[in-house]
Amino acid sequence: MHPSKLLLVGIAVLAWPTSLPAQSVTRYVRFAVGDAVSYGVLENQTVRQMAGDDLFALTRTDRTYSLADVQLLAPIDPDRVQKVLGVAINTRRPSRMQPIPHPRFFAKLPTSLGGPDDPVELPPEAGNLNYEGELVLVVGREGRHIPEARALEYVFGVTAGNDFSENTWYGERNGVDEPTRLISKGTDSWGPIGPAIVTGLDFLDLPVETRLNGEVVQRGRTSDLVNGAANLLSYVSRYVTLKPGDLIFTGTVARVEGARVIMRAGDVLEVEIEGIGVLRNEVVGMEGGVQ
């Protein structure tokens, strides 16, 4: 590589923000009480109900519930999410320490989304379903060709996510004998998020931990990303108009050496990000499907 190109890469790394301005932290949740579904703000162990069905246009009410008396759902209504984007191989490692010019984006689907304690379906034909705990950006403003220096202004908040993938299918090595890359990422239930969407949080260097049946299988920090949050958002906005409610899975953290990665029915996954909370989901056998 030409020395001038190396210099430009170095400048790009130095230009990434290392912290965000201090703001008040708010934890938005979406919850059910009986058949009624509402947005709310989580305040310790109390949920304050908000009026409205649009996360970006809520108004405060005086009604509150104990957290123990509500069922937490995906913290944004999947029917109001237009795009769910993710990034593959975005964790720092010896072979990839500097930003790459074209991050490996892929798409999940709004129907992939789930919430805390929602089941993750394991099709009988899937022999290599893997977990990937990571930070998820929630876009709050429409934008196209967003400068990297201003990209974080377009982030409404962040949440935790688990990007489940059938990684044998992802490479499409067996052609029509196996499902496509789209199915390997976009199957229903393979994108749980939660428990809250948190605003005002400095999310650029938070600890992330994934646990499988209580055992730590991934550990890292949100600062371990090869291409950081601002870079990812700016890059993808060159090609795709971002809309409020779009989600960007930013890339998983490193696995613990020797950790099991292939999921079985009955496995329980927990993704914990400091300041956001714990996202818990159980793997269950899919009903029906190819036998």
The CATH superfamily name of the largest domain is: Fumarylacetoacetase-like, C-terminal domain
SSE series: HEEEEEEEEEEEEEHHEEEHEEE
- From the alpha-carbon coordinates, what is the Rg to the nearest angstrom? 19 Å
The shape is globular
Mean pLDDT score, rounded?
Answer: 92
Distance between the termini: 50 Å
Highest-level CATH class of the largest domain: Alpha Beta
Helix content: 10-25%
Strand content: 35-45%
Unreliably modeled segments = 1-16
- Helix/strand-derived category reads mainly beta
Please count the helical segments.
4
Largest sheet: 12 strands, mixed
Find the CATH topology of the largest domain: Fumarylacetoacetate hydrolase, domain 2
Work out the count of structural domains.
2
- Count the beta strands: 19
The CATH architecture classification of the largest domain is Alpha-Beta Complex
List keywords for this structure.
single chain; 291 residues; mainly beta; SH3 type barrels; Fumarylacetoacetate hydrolase, domain 2; 2 domains; twelve-stranded mixed beta sheet; five-stranded mixed beta sheet; 4 helices; globular; disordered N terminus
Commentary on this structure:
The protein has 291 residues and is mainly beta. It folds into 2 domains: 24-73, SH3 type barrels; 77-285, Fumarylacetoacetase-like, C-terminal domain (Fumarylacetoacetate hydrolase, domain 2, Alpha-Beta Complex). 12% of the residues lie in helices and 37% in strands. The protein has helices at 3-15, 167-170, 181-186, 229-239; strands spanning 26-33, 36-43, 46-51, 59-66, 71-73, 84-88, 104-108, 113-114, 120-122, 129-130, 133-139, 155-162, 165-166, 191-199, 207-212, 215-221, 247-249, 268-273, 277-285. Strands 1, 2, 3, 4, 5, 6, 7, 8, 11, 12, 14 and 17 form a 12-stranded mixed β-sheet that branches. The radius of gyration is 19 Å and the shape is globular. The termini are far apart. The model is unreliable at 1-16 (pLDDT under 50).
